[in-house]
Write a structure and sequence with these properties.
The protein is of the alpha/beta class. The protein has a single domain, classed as Rossmann fold (3-Layer(aba) Sandwich). It is built from nine helices and nine strands. The protein has a seven-stranded mixed sheet with strand order 5-4-3-6-7-9-8, with helices on both faces. A two-stranded antiparallel ribbon has the order 1-2. Helix 1 runs antiparallel to helix 3 and helix 4 runs parallel beside helix 5. The radius of gyration is 18 Å and the shape is globular. The chain binds S-adenosylmethionine. S-adenosylmethionine (SAM) binds next to strand 3, helix 3 and strand 4.
Length: about 240
C-alpha cells in the first residue's frame, strides 16, 4: 500500500501532516517512552515540527537517556540521522540495546559548564535539533540552553521539555509568580526571550533582520539576532533558529 504526505499551507505556516505509516507517537508507545500518549503526550506536537526531517541525514541530540526508550524511538524515526544522547549516569550503557551505530552515548552532566564545554569540543558539530529531557532542574535547563543554542544549525530548533517544574513550589518555582523578571526560573527566562524575538521589529520599521543596518545588527545579542520564533505548548517550549 502507498502512503502520501499532505502539506497544508496558510500564508504564514506550512505543516506536513504525517503519512499514514507509523507515526512518532506510535513509535513512542512501541518503545514505552513517557513522551508518548501513554503519559505526557508530546509526540503529536513534535511530529508537526520534525516530520520533514524524518528521512534526512540530520544531527540530533537528546539530553536524558534513562533506559533508552525515547532513544530507540528517535533511532527508528530518524532512520538516516546521526543521533547523540547525553546523560550523567554511566549506568545508561546497560540500556544501549536496540540502538543502531548511528547513535552515540555521552556521559555529561548538563548542569556543569565544563562538562558541556568538553562535549561541544568532542562532538565539534552543529545540531538540527536539540531536546532537553534531562534533570528538569531550572538551572540545568537554562545553562544547557545557553551553552547549546549556539550549536544549533540555522533553521534548526531547541526544545525544552517538562517545563511544569518551573511551577513546582518545592523546586522554588513559586518565585515565578512573585517576580516575572527573575530569569533563574526557566519559564520566566523563556518568556523573557520572547522580547528578543521582537527586538528587531521594535527598533526598526522593517522587521526583516536581513535588512537591519549592519551597525545595529552588530549590537544585537545572539537571541535577538538568531531566534526566529518561540512556541509554547503544555510543558514544552520550542525555540526555532533563523535560517
Ligand atoms: C526523564 S529521564 C529521560 C527519559 C528519556 N528521554 C525517555 O523519554 O525515555 C531523565 C534523565 O535525565 C538524566 N539526568 C538527570 N540529571 C542530569 C544531569 N544533570 N545531566 C545529564 N543527565 C541528567 C537522568 O539520569 C535520567 O536518565
Amino acid at each position: 500500500m502507498k502512503f502520501f504526505k499532505v502539506v497544508i499551507c496558510s500564508s504564514v505556516l506550512c505543516y506536513q501532516v504525517p503519512s499514514l505509516g507509523t507515526n512518532l507517537n506510535q513509535l513512542g508507545v512501541k518503545y514505552n517512552t513517557d513522551k508518548s500518549s501513554i503519559h505526557h503526550n508530546y509526540l503529536d506536537i513534535y511530529e508537526r515540527y520534525l516530520n520533514h526531517l524524518k528521512d534526512q541525514p540530520i544531527t540530533f541530540l537528546e539530553i536524558g537517556f534513562l533506559q533508552g526508550s525515547s532513544a530507540r524511538m528517535w533511532d527508528e524515526y530518524f532512520s538516516n540521522g546521526k543521533l547523540h544522547f547525553m546523560d550523567y549516569d554511566p549506568g545508561i550503557y546497560n540500556y544501549a540495546h536496540g540502538l543502531s551505530d548511528r547513535s552515540t552515548l555521552h556521559i555529561v552532566d548538563q548542569g556543569k559548564r565544563t562538562d558541556l564545554e568538553n562535549f561541544i569540543k568532542k562532538t565539534d558539530t552543529q545540531f538540527d535539533v536539540i531536546l532537553d529531557d534531562g534533570g528538569h532542574r531550572m538551572e540545568q535547563q537554562i545553562l544547557s540552553f545557553e551553552m547549546l543554542f549556539p550549536r544549533i544549525k540555522p533553521g534548526g530548533m531547541y526544545i525544552v521539555e517538562d517545563l511544569h517544574t518551573s511551577y513546582w513550589s518545592d523546586w522554588s518555582g513559586y518565585e515565578f509568580a512573585k517576580n516575572t523578571c527573575n530569569n533563574k526560573i526557566a519559564i520566566n527566562y523563556l518568556l523573557n526571550l520572547v522580547h528578543d524575538v521582537n527586538h528587531v521589529g521594535a527598533q526598526n520599521k522593517c522587521a526583516d533582520i536581513n535588512k537591519f543596518p549592519t551597525e545595529l545588527r552588530k549590537a544585537l545579542n545572539i537571541y535577538q539576532s538568531d531566534i526566529e520564533s518561540i512556541h509554547f505548548y503544555t510543558s514544552i517550549c520550542i525555540i526555532v533558529k533563523r535560517k
